[in-house]
Design a protein that fits this description.
Largest sheet: 10 strands, antiparallel
Number of strands: 31
Shape: globular
Helix content: 10-25%
Mean pLDDT: 94
Strand content: 25-35%
Distance between the termini: 45 Å
Length: 626
């Protein structure tokens, strides 16, 4: 049996996000209103009691505001002494009377501050924490923590070993569902714990020299399919997210005014699917529950009464508690988990997730892969196409905050992203980003994106104690007018290397003498959202025997084909990335294709020929390009 680790994190957020607008109920804003502070602290107590009643210890992330409240400090000290809870701090929950008077701003996202203010706020929070507790915290966090912020904290407060450092896919989709008003734009990061590099928080460290010194955890454990396809804030192990997503059965009040009868099988299935991921991660899986008091206020949220908000949280803790009693869960504080993670994982070991749909009842299946060189998503509903690809190998410097080129935008740029660049299924003109293959015969063509399948995970040893992670897809049948082809795809992620190998095997053909053509292609671009970037910086190459057949992108639909090409590649200076395709197979021809203004992509590819029992192999390689 694997080890399922859970972090339960609470914060006594004296002025919780949104709560002043809700509990104020038409009154003028007053961050010091006693009713607001009292209700917030009462909810924090309920959360703590729910965890402790079920035998779970927590990490108490003290907000700046709570450090000025004697009762909040006393509660933290008591629960640390009695239950073993960790007392940490958070860089969320900054807004309060003291903060507003001192810093003269309504900003509350520390990664958006200029660097001088980031340092001043960190020193203020950590200094006040030391004043109240007599020691510095070992854990901290925010929705997002940029690399410069983490590096400063680690240098000034070396005892910090763990931090909440990003929110998985909290980008344009969440922004749009918040009426274009929620500027936490941070797509492209890991969904599970990782060690951030010193250069870019989202990109995991490849070695000790790149190690920022902390273990990072995500803000919430999201549904890796529902949150990718839709709004991340509706599908996570935050019980109130489940209510917001309407994936539950509400309870009701009885004649005595008691509330009960609610159920949320989706929440339990989601937790269990995270448990299932230990099969792909060396016997280890992780989950976290992080709920601020603002989500459980007395006015209710999302047409859900307070009684349901409270019950959902208590029931969620009860499920974790039952798993612990059955020996299926280990509860840890954040700093304990950081120590565990460093013992359990090594730098180049990837995080893998083979994820299925548990919301809509479809057979859709995604595979997520994350290591220091890339984050990739493989969609079995599209024949094993790569539909998301982030080139971590570039370790892209990406300054964030006031005074930098990116005041709010934290996302790690993509090369492929089907939601923001259409993927295979596009409008009547143009192309979307995707890595797939087309099978052709006598003028007929079938894209594997149209061939639904499922994947099976395995591992193979590599030299030096490394492993390769393999996805073996169920064979698909491709029917042409005069021949039927049975094709199998195997996708390999070799550990410690920045490439993806794809093997296509022709298992059977109804006419063993027939021959098919395969077109392995990658349509790509670069960006962080839906809007196209200037592609004139891109340079395309088809290499053979030292002749690179180079082309500077100019939206002119040009293309180049080179028989027996050693490689085809693109260099994208704005994201310091080089992406290369190589191939091995009969009659291979490498090619690249320039896009046009309405379809501002580039295509890299290889064609070849196949008969029964033959195979065609390609490698997609990523590297930093200065």
């Amino acid at each position: 049996m694997g080890e399922f680790i859970v972090n339960i994190i609470h914060r006594p957020e004296m002025v919780p996000e949104y709560a002043e607008k809700v509990t104020g109920h038409g009154q003028a804003e007053d961050l010091g209103r006693k009713a607001l502070l009292t209700e917030s602290l009462d909810i924090f107590k309920i959360q703590q009691e729910a965890a402790h009643r079920n035998g779970l210890k927590t990490t108490i992330q003290m907000t700046y505001a709570s450090l000025f409240n004697d009762e909040a400090v006393a509660l933290a000290k008591h629960d640390h002494a009695v239950y073993g809870d960790e007392i940490a701090t958070t860089l969320l929950g900054l807004p309060c009377e003291e903060f507003r008077k001192k810093y003269k701003t309504k900003d509350f996202c520390i990664w958006m501050f200029d660097m001088d203010m980031k340092k001043a706020v960190v020193d203020d929070v950590f200094g006040k924490f030391y004043e109240r507790f007599g020691f510095y915290p070992q854990s901290t966090g925010s929705y997002y923590m940029d690399a410069a912020l983490i590096n400063y904290i680690k240098e000034k407060y070396p005892m910090v070993k763990c931090a909440v450092a990003t929110c998985w896919e909290e980008g344009p989709k969440a922004y749009h569902t918040c009426n274009n008003s929620w500027y936490t734009l941070m797509d492209g990061g890991p969904w599970a714990p990782w060690i951030p590099s010193k250069v870019n928080t989202h990109a995991p460290a490849a070695n000790e020299a790149e190690d920022s010194g902390i273990v990072a955890i995500p803000h919430l454990s999201r549904d890796l399919l529902a949150c990718y396809d839709g709004n991340g804030s509706n599908f996570g192990t935050h019980p109130q997210n489940v209510l917001r997503g309407m994936v539950y059965t509400p309870g009701q009040f009885d004649e005595s005014g008691n509330y009960g009868g609610q159920s949320y099988p989706y929440l339990y299935n989601l937790i269990d699917q995270y448990r299932y991921q230990e099969r792909f991660n060396n016997g280890y899986s992780y989950n976290m529950q992080f709920v601020g008091p603002g989500w459980m206020n007395k006015m209710g949220r999302w047409e859900a009464p307070y009684e349901l908000l409270k019950a959902s949280y208590e029931d969620g803790c009860a499920y974790y508690g039952q798993l612990k009693k059955e020996g299926k869960l280990i509860d840890m504080t954040m700093s304990e988990f950081a120590d565990y993670y460093r013992q359990k994982k090594h730098y180049t070991e990837p995080e893998c997730a083979l994820w299925r749909d548990i919301v809509y009842g479809s057979n859709k299946q995604l595979f997520w892969y994350c290591d220091p060189y890339m984050r990739a998503c493989v969609n079995m509903d599209q024949g094993g196409a790569i539909v998301d690809l982030r080139p971590y190998a570039a370790k892209l410097e990406w300054e964030i905050g006031i005074g930098t080129p990116h005041v709010q935008e934290c996302a790690y740029p993509f090369l492929i992203q089907e939601k923001y660049r259409a993927g295979y299924f596009t409008h009547y003109a143009g192309e979307g980003t995707v890595r797939s293959a087309k099978i052709c015969h006598n003028g007929e063509e079938v894209d594997l994106c149209l061939c639904r399948t499922h994947a099976h995970f395995s591992e193979e040893p590599l030299p030096g104690g490394r492993k390769a992670r393999l996805l073996t897809l169920d064979p698909v049948e491709i029917v042409f007018s005069d021949v039927t082809v049975k094709l199998q795809t195997v996708i390999t992620f070799p550990e410690g290397e920045s490439d993806i190998r794809i093997d296509r095997h022709v298992l059977e053909m109804s006419d063993p003498s027939a021959e098919i053509t395969i077109n392995e292609y990658m349509v790509a671009c670069y960006g962080v959202n839906e809007y196209p970037e200037d592609m004139t910086c891109v340079r395309l190459y088809a290499n053979r025997d030292g002749d690179d057949h180079a082309l500077s992108y100019a939206y002119k639909c040009r293309e180049c084909q080179v028989a027996q090409a050693d490689s085809v590649e693109a260099k994208i200076p704005p994201i310091k990335t080089r992406v290369t395709l190589e191939a091995q197979g009969r009659d291979k021809v490498g090619y690249y294709r320039e896009g046009y203004a309405f379809s501002p992509m580039f295509t890299l590819g290889y064609t070849g020929t196949l008969k029964e029992k033959e195979e065609f192999t390609t490698w997609l390689k990523l590297a930093r390009e200065n």
